[in-house]
Amino acid sequence: MADPQALEEVVEFTSGLIRIDTTNRGGGDCRERPAAEYAAERLAGAGLDPLLLERTPGRTNVVARIAGTEPAADALLVHGHLDVVPAEAADWRVHPFSGEVRDGVVWGRGAVDMKNMDAMILAVLRSWARQGVRPRRDLVIAFTADEEASAEDGSGFLADRHPELFEGCTEAIGESGAFTFHDGSGREIYPIAAGERGTGWLKLTARGRAGHGSKVNEENAVTRLAAAVARIGEHRWPLRITPTVRAALTELAALYGIDAGLTDVDRLLEKLGPAARLVEATVRNSANPTMLNAGYKLNVIPGEAVAHVDGRYLPGTEEEFTATLDELTGPDVHWEFAHREAALQAPVDAPLFAKMRSAVTEFAPGGRVVPYCMSGGTDAKQFSRLGITGYGFAPLKLPADYDYQALFHGVDERVPVEALRFGVRVLDHFLRTA
């Protein structure tokens, strides 16, 4: 059991990490080193020998290994990222980089994504050092840079350039799972991620004939691009039920006493009510236009127009995804992957999943754990290159008025102190025997 000091340190460390501004604006505009040094100092205080690793100066990662009591056992990777998405202070009730603790809540960017989990890991390991605890199998701890962009300076760099640090690792835990989902009827559901949709960030380029804005132009690049973007935005992707999503639907249907009815998934989602939010974004691929860029003067038809699309695809559907994009963009628009990462699946019948389920129910006996597939992606994608199977497990017990998923990248991101302490207890229990 985590000692009382750990329950105080997790709050201190969450607040301290939030106060270090590690905003990742993309394009290399971020500096994680101060946060990496903060984490490394606390790992060293737990008797570990952390390594600080950079591909680019200032974009720092931290890796440490803890020897287990069973050297022959496979190692477990425990990872969290240090960077955060931007926050506009004027929009917040509390400054996003204050780390203020007010009315039992820690405020700031990273409170749920994911400096809270970083702090939990640090608090647990320092507690173990005080108590002389060792895990059953080796643990590799990684705090990464650049997760909120391409991961090229973070987990991608570690996987490609330092695979030896993860020797023996077969499984991993990271964001985002084991948080309380309230369905509005008093039930507490704890979804644990056992899959991720693949990332297909797309760049669309339309070329045409430049000319005067007053002239007829049937080769207008903006018109061609706009038509393709509209087709993509309006496309209804077909249902594609993966094993992870099938397991999620089956367990949720059983929870509500509903016939799983996987022959009519849309109807089943209607019957699940608010709980459908856990799976509705992962029963299909998606492609959402997000950026447009064309022209330099109102009365000049440009020769080129560019758009960007956030595409996500389920395991086993990448070929279908690319073929559909070929059809939707048409002959006048070229498209390419600006960034591409694989879709992931992890077995929900694995012993590790059972141990995560048990750890949550030990401290939330009235909760129901279910598997789910993440609609987005995490560093698990890059670590999968090393043959590591990843799960989302960053436990938090949240009150009914907290919408965890809305707080991700949202305004007024915050986490209750008691949620952090719950997370420390669950993580401590899980990692001792995992």
Walk me through what this model shows.
The chain has 434 residues and is α+β, with helices and mostly antiparallel strands. Helix content is 32%, strand content 24%. It contains 12 helices and 19 strands. A 6-stranded mixed sheet has the order 1-2-6-3-7-18, sandwiched between helices. Strands 8, 9, 16 and 17 form a 4-stranded mixed sheet that branches. A hairpin with a 5-residue loop joins strand 8 (181-182) and strand 9. It is globular. The two termini are 15 Å apart.
Query: Going across the major beta sheet, what is the strand order?
Result: 1-2-6-3-7-18
Q: What is the makeup of the main sheet?
A: 6 strands, mixed
Mean pLDDT comes to: 96
* Strand fraction: 15-25%
List the keywords:
434 residues, 32% helix, 19 strands, four-stranded mixed sheet, alpha+beta
Short description:
This protein has twelve helices and 19 strands. With 434 residues, the protein is an alpha+beta fold.
